[in-house]
Design brief:
five-stranded antiparallel β-sheet; elongated; alpha/beta; 2 domains; Alpha-Beta Plaits; Aminopeptidase
């Protein structure tokens, strides 16, 4: 089975977050029927595949779940180079590359296939798999095969979501002077967000953007009632140089005068680690454009464990989760060939 056929098979298996058993069954069965010589560890977080000959120093990591398929999901393109369907970009292309590499007799790899990346942080399968991985394997480097257009993307931003509540006073809309409409107080918060919407950062020579957005606003119970409160969600993608405490402090300093703040979730980012010898070797061998990761990815979990990592995989990240999600066959093959080239350089 070619890597292209492998990806098409993976796409055909629906694996929306929370429903990944079938695709994990397929991955496990594929390894067994394609003479994978090694150990397959499986738990509710996913699968770790360890070749018998491996030094276990390089983890190839991919999530098997997808967001839901939409009604207008495009499944056919006129261009024969394109493979379409939910997950073709995010990230079954990367999973197909890992499977191909696992049966290629490399001496240093471990395959990690995990669940629930598209859901809440606390349900992510890596939470269960990483302790097992660390116990079983002396991992020194990881490649997260998220879609990057085959760019080498380093580090990632932290992400914080906060619930901001503006208090008011309920009243009849026919007599608004007896109430206190919190909606009118929203303008000050919008002004602060716009002033802090984009902050350019240079970290290890890479240009990150720290960004702030309002993503949800809700208020009111009826058309003829002045609401007694307004709630909004603030999404803050913060510098990898910050941590939860410092990111929270920024939000409190900016908004505590105007709203009550509850941080609902927060995940720190990862520094680019450009000085890491493992990353230097990967960059030198692969020779592709090196850019910052303008998002949060599970690279942060490996950074927390002091394991240098890169984001590198097939597919345009701008097409992830879209109705016309698709990946180039040429780019899929290039991704495999470049990671294969890197791994062969370690084998020498």
């Amino acid at each position: 089975m070619s890597i292209i056929e492998k990806l098409e098979k993976l796409i055909s298996i629906e694996s929306i977050t929370g429903n990944e058993e079938n695709i994990l069954d397929y991955i496990e069965q594929y390894l067994k029927t394609n003479q994978f010589d090694g150990t397959v560890i499986r738990n509710s977080g996913g699968i770790i595949a360890i070749p018998k000959i491996s030094s276990k120093k390089v983890a190839l990591v991919g999530h098997v779940d997808t967001v839901p398929i939409v009604k207008d999901q495009k499944v056919n393109f006129d261009d024969d180079d394109l493979i379409s369907g939910r997950g073709s970009v995010d990230m079954k292309g990367g999973v197909a590359v890992i499977l191909e590499l696992l049966i290629s007799n490399h001496k240093n790899i471990v395959g990690v296939f995990y669940t629930a990346e598209e859901g809440p942080y606390e349900n992510n399968g890596l939470g269960e798999l990483i302790p097992v991985l660390i116990q079983e394997c002396p991992v020194k480097f990881s490649i997260i095969l998220e879609p990057t257009n085959n760019e080498i993307q380093l580090g990632c931003l932290g992400v914080l979501n906060a619930s901001l509540t503006i208090d008011g006073k309920a009243g009849h809309s026919a007599r608004p002077w007896v109430g206190d409409n919190p909606i009118y107080k929203l303008s000050k918060i919008i002004e602060i967000v716009k002033d802090n919407e984009i902050q350019e950062l240079e970290i290890d020579g890479l240009n990150f953007k720290q960004v702030m957005s309002i993503t949800k606003v809700s208020s009111g119970v009826a058309n003829n009632v002045i609401p007694d409160s307004l709630n909004l969600n603030l999404n803050f993608r913060y510098s990898p140089e910050l941590n939860r405490a410092s990111a929270t402090k920024i939000i409190e300093n900016l908004f505590s005068e105007y709203a009550n703040i509850i941080v609902t979730n927060c995940s720190d980012g990862a520094m680019p680690n450009l000085n890491s010898e493992e990353i230097k070797i990967f960059v030198d061998v692969v020779k592709k454009l090196t850019t910052p990761k303008q998002a949060w990815t599970d690279i942060a979990r490996f950074y927390e464990m002091n394991i240098p990592s890169v984001n590198f995989g097939p597919g345009d990240p701008l097409l992830a989760h879209s109705a016309d999600e698709h990946v180039s066959k040429r780019q899929l093959l290039e991704s495999y060939e470049l990671v294969d080239k890197y791994l062969k350089s370690l084998d020498e």
